């Protein structure tokens, strides 16, 4: 169902960027450029090795907060990108706990806030083929310049190594909140109540104690706030599924690693490894560096299987 098919359905929300005459508009544009450049600038000393095959899907739980913290540090080190004219020397990105947004671009001396970022990591090879973030913040808590950013990552050698980042998803937080509610009430098919209770008196950059979450009357499945299930991220997720890791698309790695679940027997796992090895070898007549790297990863998976 959409607003064109049913005249009683209101028009979908429209994304609104900050006005171009806003005094910090160029900063806003430069911050977006900096976020998009994160995969190039991100560096980490974090190294992962020897993780059990059945635990690979849990890496977002293990490393998610660390990577988000490192992303904030990277943005501060990228000051030349988002403040090339040095107009904001007293401002920096800072994290705040358990309130919206996760990250503030704030002046240390006065506490003045120019914009906020709701920042979430996404381990590309997790069991769910979509970001698991839940964004329930009410639209009134967001300014036009606030962003929601999802940063996808994997280990450099797929099953070991240091985290590497891929193209982030960048969206207006206010638009995301409005579209989430619109989808819940007017697009999603359900026989249950679509009423959403919206808190009153909420302003941007709320205090930790402020009730800033929109709450649906009926959400037995806990799906409200799952942005990836509203369709707003569909084209982005499709593009990420096609990203190649050691010569194999992300979507194929994810399907393959699902083999390594609790309850999978050794024979099933080894069959999956053999099939992946055959698929890799059939992609090229020559043992290219990419093919050689992938075969090395497959061999490591075989070894990890022996250790489980």
Structural summary, described in words:
- The chain is of the alpha+beta class and 308 residues long.
- The chain folds into two domains: 217 residues, no CATH class; 49 residues.
- The protein is built from nine helices and ten strands.
- The strands form three sheets. Strands 1, 2, 3, 4, 5 and 6 form a six-stranded mixed sheet that branches.
- Strand 1 and strand 2 form a beta hairpin.
- Helix 8 packs antiparallel against helix 9.
- The longest helix has 19 residues.
- The radius of gyration is 22 Å and the shape is globular.
- The N and C termini lie far apart (48 Å).
Task: Write the topology of this structure.
Layout lengths: L24 H12 L1 H4 L17 H19 L1 H4 L8 E5 L7 E5 L5 E11 L23 E9 L7 E3 L3 E4 H15 L8 E2 L17 E2 L17 H8 L2 E2 L2 E2 H8 L8 H17 L6 H19 L1
The residue-averaged pLDDT reads 87
SSE string = HHHHEEEEEEHEEHEEHHH
Oligomer kind: single chain
Main sheet overview: 6 strands, mixed
Distance between the termini: 48 Å
Strand content: 5-15%
Structural class: alpha+beta
Overall radius of gyration: 22 Å
Tally of helical runs: 9
Percentage of residues assigned to helices: 25-40%
Low-pLDDT segments, ≥5 res: 1-5
Any idea how many domains?
2
| β-strand number | 10
Molecular shape: globular
Provide a short characterization of the protein structure.
This protein has 308 residues and is an alpha+beta fold.
Which terms summarize this structure?
alpha+beta; single chain; disordered N terminus; 34% helix; six-stranded mixed sheet; 2 domains; globular; 308 residues
């Amino acid at each position: 169902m959409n607003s064109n098919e049913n005249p009683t359905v209101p028009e979908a929300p429209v994304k609104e960027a900050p006005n171009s005459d806003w005094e910090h508009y160029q900063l806003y544009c430069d911050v977006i450029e900096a976020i998009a450049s994160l995969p190039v600038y991100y560096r980490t000393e974090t190294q992962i090795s020897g993780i059990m095959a059945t635990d690979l899907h849990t890496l977002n739980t293990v490393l998610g907060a660390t990577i988000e913290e490192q992303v904030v540090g990277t943005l501060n080190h990228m000051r030349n990108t988002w403040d090339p004219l040095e107009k904001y020397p007293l401002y920096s990105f800072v994290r705040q706990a358990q309130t919206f947004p996760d990250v503030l671009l704030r002046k240390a001396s006065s506490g003045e806030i120019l914009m906020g970022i709701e920042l979430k990591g996404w381990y590309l090879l997790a069991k769910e083929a979509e970001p698991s973030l839940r964004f329930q913040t009410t639209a009134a808590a967001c300014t036009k310049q606030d962003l929601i950013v999802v940063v996808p990552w994997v280990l450099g050698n797929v099953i070991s190594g240091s985290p590497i980042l891929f193209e982030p998803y960048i969206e207006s937080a206010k638009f995301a909140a409005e579209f989430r509610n619109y989808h819940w009430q007017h697009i999603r098919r359900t026989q249950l109540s679509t009423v959403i209770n919206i808190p009153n008196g909420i302003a941007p950059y709320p205090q930790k104690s402020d009730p800033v979450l929109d709450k649906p009357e009926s959400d037995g499945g806990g799906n409200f706030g799952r942005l990836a299930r509203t369709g707003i991220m569909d084209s982005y997720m499709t593009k990420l599924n096609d990203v190649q890791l050691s010569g194999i698309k992300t979507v194929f790695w994810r399907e393959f690693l699902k083999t390594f679940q609790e309850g999978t027997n050794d024979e099933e796992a080894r069959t999956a490894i053999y099939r992946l090895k055959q698929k890799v070898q059939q992609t090229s007549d020559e043992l290219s560096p990419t093919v050689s790297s992938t075969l090395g990863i497959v061999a490591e998976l075989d070894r990890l299987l022996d250790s489980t």
